Amino acid sequence: MLEKEEQLLKKRISELASLCYRRDIRTNTGFLNLNEQAIFHSMERMLPPVSAVVFGGFDMAERKIVCFLPSYEQDTENFPIDRLEIAPVNARFSEELGHRDFLGALMGLGVDRSCIGDIMMTDAGCVLFCLEQMSEFLMRELKSVRRTAVCCRRAEGLSGFSQAYEEISGSVSSPRLDSLISLVFRLSRAKALSFISGEKAFINGRLALSAGQRLSGGEIVSVRGLGKFCYVGAGNGTRKGRMFVTARRYT
Q: Fewer C-beta neighbours within 10 Å, C or N terminus of the chain?
């Protein structure tokens, strides 16, 4: 992220937190990517003393909003996010559509990227998470993706969506970040290290600063260009002193 863009984001986050604190009302950002979430976490301690919740519409979401909560609302399940389902009007005559096609159609409508969360491909089309203020516009205006006519409807609530995953098990010398990335994405240790040193690895939305960071279980690891996984935890050790670990790689 360019320095000017980073400063503008920090200013916006600070303003939203201050507004929540001064007026005791809920405020929220738009959807933040991993780098933007890392910036938020880096300045979190310098913000006014308000509770903040980070959520993207489902547990494994990559793009997330930050909600600053008033004093009377210390936790929330009511996020300003809607889940939309987009599918071809006639599947028989549909082109083969991918993530870029759906995102391109949304950008073609002039929608700001911060209003759009994750776009998850399904057998029928895709599931889209967006700020609730955009739902009516998208349901009214999104009529086609490439040359395929589509329909867009709001799903009932945010619950009920889960991302498919592949369970991966193997042995490592220790549950270090670089070892787990190497195992899950089937990379050499050197290649895994290059993603971490290149600031492309994130743990629970925070930039990973050390290849040797040990994971305890339950962490969500995202690696730009590769994907994401949840480290489930370690099991029994081997006779050679290594340990069996399990992770869920999301597809």
A: C
